[in-house]
Amino acid sequence: MPNFIVGEIILVDKPLTWTSFDVVNKIKYSLKRKLNLKKIKVGHAGTLDPLASGLLIVCTGKKTKAITEIQAQVKEYTGVITLGATTPSFDLETEPENFKATDKVDLSDIISAAKKLTGKINQTPPIFSAKKIDGKRAYDLARKGKTPEMRIVEVEVYDFEITNLELPEVHFRVTCSKGTYIRTLANDLGELLKTGAYLKELRRTKIGEYAVSEAYTVEKIIEEIQNLPEENY
Description:
The chain is an alpha+beta fold.
């Protein structure tokens, strides 16, 4: 049986619209209520945007010490990029604009552009991101109509594979280092193709050796917590 007080690593299949903080809070509240605790350490190993689904690793107790190590591991994502428009947030949090034709783009163009975005590359994080600017989240500033100054960061994209093409939609799989913004990758792909692009769908499938196929829904995890036998605590 799991011992959440001593420490557990929980693999969560985060649903769409939930923030990573929502997931942590839900699990933390359920544990405190079930185990009759005032405090318990619960944290996640890498933020996943509300408009993304997939693997979120939640750690409890002493296992929270492993968060930094887990965060540093290679990430894998699958998703869909839409060509022919851009959005201020680089995804569908904001409305598409700057529409352009995509009829002259073919698969070889997209594969060539993806190769240019592979390896060690410089990225500018989206203004609609959790990056802190002078102590404030960039997305809070952006939602107030401000344009925070985002610093360029070096990341590494190990593989940017085009898995299917149904214009204007590009299906992909990416493996990358910590700190890589897939939304920025989508936007940069659009710039290289001169069509514009934004991230339509995103799912995190792996963090290191941890896979979403081994993860549980939030509802299933809460059910398991509620069914803990008394001797477990």
